[in-house]
Amino acid sequence: MSVAPGLQPESWHLLSLLEQAPGLQALGDTLADLADEGHPVVVGTADLKYSNGLVRFQERHPDKYLQFGISEQHMVSTAAGLATTGLRPYVATFASFMALLACEQIRTDVAYTRQPVRLIGHHAGITLGFYGTSHHATEDLAITRSIAGLTVVAPADTAALAAALRASVDLPGPVYFRIGRGRDPDVYPAGTTLEIGKAVEHGTGSDLTLIATGSMVHPALGAAAALNADGYDVGVLDMHTVKPLDEEAVLAAARRSRLLMTVEEHNVLGGLGGAVAELISEHGIPVRLHRHGIRDQYSLIGPPTHLYRHYRLDAPGVEAEAREALLA
Amino acid sequence: MTAQTPVAPADRELIEHIEERALFARLETVRLISIAKTGHYASGFSCAEILATLYYGVMRLRRGEPDWPDRDRFLFGKGHAAATLYPLLADWGFFDAAELDEYTRLGNAFGDHPDMTRIPGIDFSSGSLGHALSAGTGMAMGGRLQGRSYTTFVLLGDGELHEGQVWEAALGAAHHRLGRLVAIVDRNDHSLDGRIDGVTGIEPLLEKWRAFGWQTHEVDGHDVASLLPLLRSLAEDTGRDRPAVVVANTVKGKGISYMESEFGWHLGWLAERDEANALAELRGAR
Where do the Transketolase N-terminal domain residues begin and end (chain B) (predicted)? Predict the structure, then answer.
């Protein structure tokens, strides 16, 4: 979709936004593929179909697409009702409005009733940069992780998102997908597969294992490469499933590394760092854990790339954080 | 519109049966609350005729088959009145009535609010107010998407209408033209802290629903002879392209003189002698 003639090529508008977001194109396309294949998929959003790519689903399956308008709580409860009739609803909105605004509907109507609803919180973390605190979601992992029966998945890139959607299609219970703004650099090749609950191991590290989730896998891999080139032995775990946590993978890393560092675009309280801390302390493993993320504060506004640099959530930042932790 | 359809002689027996089952539901409510030593008498009593009319005169259900895919759905927005509903579900053979003898005991499926994961015949769990009309919207949408012709009934409390999500659902259901969705408002004029108009006023109610795009009806919620033809006509009107709401005017605590319109009986418990008197009063009213 092109902008008006005569404008500079760099100009863009809402309808061309998706061209910059392959991950969100994959969201709409993969769900449409699943519907093509006969899965009883219905898809809904709360007035964000251009922002989250679900317009691509609507184009292919207008009869299975539901527009809710700006009523996130209603959307989540409706999805629960839809699921009772045998359908598989996938509903999406900004992560802040999904996990925070509709938190109780997720708990009471979806998870407690054990309905196979798929909740997609997109533009999670600080990806909405200068839109401000209301649009940042640095609490959603903590909230969704504490809801019994809810699976929590944060894929690292476009291919992982498509794989996670496919891997979850037959799960009997509800799933929360935490995704970014669809512009994460590629970690995996197209067509990759992924097993819910099983971390992806990128090398082992006697010095340090970086345990990263979602958007932080790519910078963690960059940091690990730099540290390994410098003589350290650093591995990375892509913890795409935050719940149920791959306990075996974490415990193995805790036993072989002298330092663990979790990396998440989230408050260090209650998210991946919290999950890993709970696990290793319960097992009494004498390994040091450094939790890296947003340290219990509301993130600043600013362009996302600037925020990642500020919070040391880009590859050089993760590397610097890891070096300090290794030397501490 | 208040339904004043003349009642055919054949329906006379049915109306009497429904009235008898509403009394049964009230008596059972007293018994169950006696087991728990706390519960919602008055909220259940205000909707006893509505529940009995739906379950014995209107809804398509199959005895002993709570999961029959083409059954009409019922969602209990004001789920705190579940003790009045459970006996009716037992009547339908969805579970053994003896299970209610253990009402609210440790590990029992039957609590103050209905749980679809544990109680056959409960179409949706509730308790948190304001969600049910949305969930009912989903059931109505799901029925339409899959070519099923069932009707989804959602019983809302009038205090529940304070919740903003109800109005999100009212907008959404009208926008999606869900003609197979019927909301019933149990307008007993009270919420927990007193009279609705003193807590947060909701009138003019019919005008509000109408403005949201709903077909509106008003009825005496204790008059089975009015409820039955109205709710039946809504269930049978398969050509309707917008949702319908029935505002049922009721009396909170209906059936026990000192509970009627006394908001303190929203929650309570009757000791042995008072319970005996209450049961006698209920039976005597017949």
Answer: 26-272
